[in-house]
Amino acid sequence: MKLPQPDSIARQHSQKVAAYIADKIHHSGGVIAFSKYMEHVLYAPGLGYYSAGCIKFGEQGDFITAPEISPLFSRCIARAITPILNNLVSSSILEVGAGSGKMAADIIMELHNTGQHFEYYYILERSAELRERQQQTLNALPVELADKVTWLDSLPISFIGVVLANELLDAMPITRFHKKNQTVVEMGVAYQNGQFVWQDNVASNVRLNSRIEKIENNLGQVFHDGYTSEINFAAEDWLSSINDMLETGYILLIDYGYPENEYYHEQRDNGTMSCFYQHGRHDDPFLYPGLQDITAHIDFSNLTQAVLTADNSSATTAASLQLNAYTTQSNFLMASGLTELLQENTDDVKQQLVLSQQVKKLTMPYEMGEVVKVIGFDKGLVDVRADNSVLELPCFSMRDLRYQL
Ligand SMILES: C[S@@+](CC[C@H](N)C(=O)[O-])C[C@H]1O[C@@H](n2cnc3c(N)ncnc32)[C@H](O)[C@@H]1O
Q: If you measure from the C-alpha of residue 170 to the centroid of ligand 1, how many angstroms do you get, rounded to a whole number?
C-alpha cells in the first residue's frame, strides 16, 4: 500500500526519535527487544507517537476509535456500568488511557442525564500531551461535572468502583517472537546503515519460552518454523496491578482480540501486529518512527488466565477476582441499549442518518462488531437488591462467549 509522505517538520521529528532509539540500541550492545523498541517509539517522553503532538485520533489522525466514531458508544458504556455503580456504597470510575477525553466526557454527561450518581471520574493517562488534551475536553463540561474529574499520576493503593479502558491494551508494547530451527526466538531490533532492522535477540527469555510451550500444549501442535506472532506481557502485568488495587468493583476492558486458538491459528503466521499512518494500515514498525501507531490484538484467553492465576486478592481482601463476562462489541452495545438510543429523536432525519452510519461501524461484523471484544472481571460484587446473589449485568445478556477462553 502506498502511504502518504510526512512533511519536512514531521520528518525532522521522526529523525530525532530514530536517533534517540539508535542511541538506546548502541548502549545496549547493538540490539534491544522489540518490546523496548515499541515502548520508546510510542512513549518516549516528548518524542514517542503517544507522547508528542501528533493528532492520532479521528479523520485527521491515523486511526479512529469507537468513542471518536460515535457518542452512542460511550452512552452505552454509561448505561452498562450503572447497575454496578448502584450496587456500591461509594463508587467512582477510573479510566486508564483516555485518549482525547471524549469517552470520559460522553460517559459523564450520560450518567448525569440519567440521574446516576458517582463520586469521582479518575483518569490515569501515560502521555502528558494527551492529558492536556483531555483537560481541554473535560473542562468544557458544566463546572459541577468537570469538578468530579481528577487526573492521577499512578494507580491508587486501593479502589472501589469501575475500571474502564478502551483500546488501551492493544497500545502496550508486545514481545514479538518467531520459530527458527524448532526453537522459540525473541525478535529484537538493531540499527544498521541509518535503518532499524529485525535481529534475533539471542538472550533466553524464560517467560516467553514457557508461555509458548503452554500455548503449543493447549493447541495440541507446535508452531512451524517461520511462524511469527507476539505476546502482550505488558497487558497481563497491567491487569494484575489493577487487580491488586481493586478492593471491590468491576474491570471493563474493550479491545481488538481473539481467544487463544484463534489468535495462534496456524494460518495467522505473522501475528496481529499492525501499523497505522494516516489511516493506511501496514506491517512495518520501523517506518516513520514516532509518526505512526503500532498495535497488536489481545489474546483474551492468556490475559484472563494470567490475572486469575496471579490473583492474591483473597489473601488481602474478602473477595477474589472472577471472570464475569466476555462477548463481542456488537452484542455488548446491543444489550446496553444501542438500538433504543438510536431511536431517540427520530424526527431529525439527517441526524438519524449520521447516527445509523456510526452504529454500522460499531456493530457490523466486517467493521468493529465482531473483532472487538468486551471482557468484564468482578470482585466482591453482589446484587444488594436480590438476596446478595451474583450481580448479573444486562449489558452482557446477549451472548456469553466465556466458554471460548
Ligand atoms: C489507542 S489509544 C486509545 C484512547 C482512548 N481510550 C480511545 O478509545 O479513543 C491508547 C491510550 O492509552 C494510553 N496509554 C497507553 N499505555 C498506558 C498506560 N500504561 N497507562 C495509562 N495510559 C496508557 C495512551 O497514551 C492513549 O491515551
A: 9
Q: From the CB of 68, is ligand 1 less than 6 Å away?
A: yes
Strand partners, 111: none
Q: Which residue puts its alpha carbon closest to atom 10 of ligand 1?
A: 168
What gap in Å lies between CA 131 and CA 129, rounded to an integer?
5
Ligand 1 pocket, residue 230 CB under 6 Å? no
Residue of minimum CA distance from atom 22 in ligand 1: 97
pLDDT of residue 47: 94
The grid cell for 358 is 456510526
Does 96 sit in the ligand 1 pocket, CB within 6 Å? yes
What is the gyration radius of the CA atoms in the chain, in angstroms? Answer: 21
Give the pairing of strands 280-282 and 228-231.
Answer: unpaired
169 and 255 Cβ atoms separated by less than 8 Å = yes
Which sign does the torsion angle of CA 319, 321, 322, 328 carry? positive
Angle at 298 between CA 296 and CA 304, to 5 degrees: 155
**DSSP per residue over 216-262, as a string?**
HHHHTSPPPTT-EEEE-HHHHHHHHHHHHHEEEEEEEEEEEEE-HHH
Indicate whether residue 123 lines ligand 1 (CB < 6 A). Answer: no
Residues of the chain with pLDDT under 70: 1, 313-318, 384-388
Query: 313-338 as b/e, with b when 16 or more CB fall inside 10 Å?
Result: beeebebebebbbbbbbbbbbbbbbb
Cell of 383: 446484587
**Ligand 1 pocket, residue 67 CB under 6 Å:** yes
The CB of 97 under 6 Å from ligand 1? The reply is yes
Q: Which residue puts its alpha carbon closest to atom 23 of ligand 1? A: 97
Q: How many residues does the chain have?
A: 405
Euclidean distance between the first and the last CA atom of the chain, given in angstroms as a whole number: 34
In this predicted model, what pLDDT tens digit does every residue of 101-141 receive, in sequence order?
999 999 999 999 999 999 999 999 999 999 999 999 999 99
CA angle 203, 204, 205 (to 5 degrees): 115
State the DSSP string of 62-106: SB--HHHH-HHHHHHHHHHHHHHHHHSSS-EEEEES-TTSHHHHH
pTM above 0.90, yes or no: yes
310, 235 contact by CB (below 8 A): no
